[in-house]
Amino acid sequence: MELYIKAGPDGTSVGDCPFAHFVRAVLRMKGLECTVIPCTQETKPVWLVQDCQGKMPCLRDGEERVTESSVIVKYLEDKYQTTKIECSDDIDVMMKVAPIFQSLAKFIKKIEFDEELERNLIEEIRILENHLQTSTGPYLCGATPSLSDLSLAPKLYHLETTLSNYYPETLEKVMQGKVKEYTELVLSLPAVRDTLYPREYVLKGWEQARS
Ligand SMILES: N[C@@H](CCC(=O)N[C@@H](CS)C(=O)NCC(=O)O)C(=O)O
After folding, report:
1. What is the CATH code for 90-210?
2. pLDDT tens by residue, 70-104
3. Residue 17: CB within 6 Å of ligand 1?
4. Architecture of domain 2-79
5. For 141-167, b where at least 16 C-beta lie within 10 A, e where not — what string?
6. Residue 38 Cα to ligand 1 middle (Å)
7. Where are the domains of the chain?
8. Which atom of ligand 1 is nearest to 6's Cα?
9. Per the omega criterion (within 30 degrees of 0), is the bond before 138 cis?
């Protein structure tokens, strides 16, 4: 299998894509062999541009070509069932926490500090906090990590990195209680930790989005 993903600033290393990170964490947790191929606009293979609209992450598994991180992960879960990571609540939980990354993106992309966008982000984090308070274990779906954790962890990495750089006071406000404990826990999972890329790549990526 091969996974084509956004390259880092040097054009060859793993880039700052939280969606590609999700797929790589799933591959790692399932113990699947996969060659990761970071690409730039210039180095994307012709078939990827012509047949898959250039979308990355893109998984190539024999004749199969799959794009969209959630679709890739479903494909991997269905085809390689030896280690199942999905839990029955994953889809609902993923929908519940998805607005965190959207709120973060809006907040960070705006060059000037915007109080309302900060409030929206804090509100989404409060929903995560409440969810964790009632979860039956330290993870989103209970005692063991599942797909929703592997999806959220890369986004929390972006949150921690961008807020500590642009808005450290906002970081203080959101990184409290269960959310703080949970962030430390999921970022230290081997599947997540061993597939990380440098924080400076994250900042470079957002700097471009801000300009
Ligand atoms: N909804 C898509 C989002 C993927 C996405 O936004 N990928 C970006 C980086 S985070 C990318 O690869 N950009 C480089 C490119 O398209 O050439 C998914 O979940 O797979």
Report:
1. 1.20.1050.10
2. 999 999 999 999 899 999 999 999 999 999 999 99
3. yes
4. 3-Layer(aba) Sandwich (3.40)
5. beeebbbbbbbbbbbbbbbbbbbebbb
6. 12
7. 2-79, 90-210
8. 12
9. no
